[in-house]
């Protein structure tokens, strides 16, 4: 299993990481309508979604492997007068009790592992998410350039390690197909899967593809990728 490695936030200056994603607005309304209260920001980064959900009335817990990211969130929460439970933690082994959360928001984070790690992470998600609770997450697509064309070294059939300069240097990235997702989430009720292509940003044509998944926990153990 690949060793977990935190983002180097000193290498990332983009303001996007301080603003809630567009998806979070819909998810917050959905979860309020469903009566969910306890949200885990799974890999919170600098805390943009933790602050967003707390401002919308949720009880928010948040963790990240980056001490710098968690510290930034803690200061941000104080400035906003928000009560957010924070922790520096590795998503492969979490110190939350069984059935702790109504919902989990994991945006561009759980792909930072290899195949063995992904199976472990899915087991942790199944453990801490209440039966009937929902998870909204993203996974990297095998159709994207960084898996198909970048020439990054592979550590298994689903995983590459990014070697270019920047905040993700040396971090493993796990990639999937639709079939892989259906296997990983065989014991969840999947509401919807979207496959997106961010084909232009930062002033350039791009090929950055992700899956966006909304699923409900049935309360049983997941199947795993082999």
The helix/strand series, from N terminus to C terminus, equals HEHEHEEHEHEEEHEE
> How far do the termini sit from each other?
14 Å
Q: Please give the share of residues in helix.
A: 25-40%
Largest sheet entry? 10 strands, mixed
Provide the CATH topology.
Rossmann fold
The proportion of residues in beta strands is 25-35%
| CATH architecture name | 3-Layer(aba) Sandwich
**Can you tell me the CATH superfamily?**
Vaccinia Virus protein VP39
Radius of gyration: 17 Å
**Low-confidence sequence ranges:** none
Q: What's the number of extended β-strand segments?
A: 10
| Average pLDDT figure | 94
Provide a count of the helices: 6
Overall spatial form? globular
The number of distinct structural domains comes to 1
How would you sum up this structure, described in words?
It is a single chain. With 226 residues, this protein is of the alpha/beta class. It has one domain (16-217): Vaccinia Virus protein VP39 (Rossmann fold, 3-Layer(aba) Sandwich). Helices cover 26% and strands 33% of the residues. It contains six helices and ten strands; from the N terminus they run αβαβαββαβαβββαββ. It has helices at residues 22-33, 48-55, 67-80, 115-128, 145-148, 178-184, and strands at 38-42, 59-64, 84-88, 101-106, 129-141, 154-156, 159-161, 172-176, 188-201, 204-217. Strands 1, 2, 3, 4, 5, 6, 7, 8, 9 and 10 form a ten-stranded mixed sheet that branches. The radius of gyration is 17 Å and the shape is globular. 38% of the residues are buried. The model has no long low-confidence stretch (mean pLDDT 94).
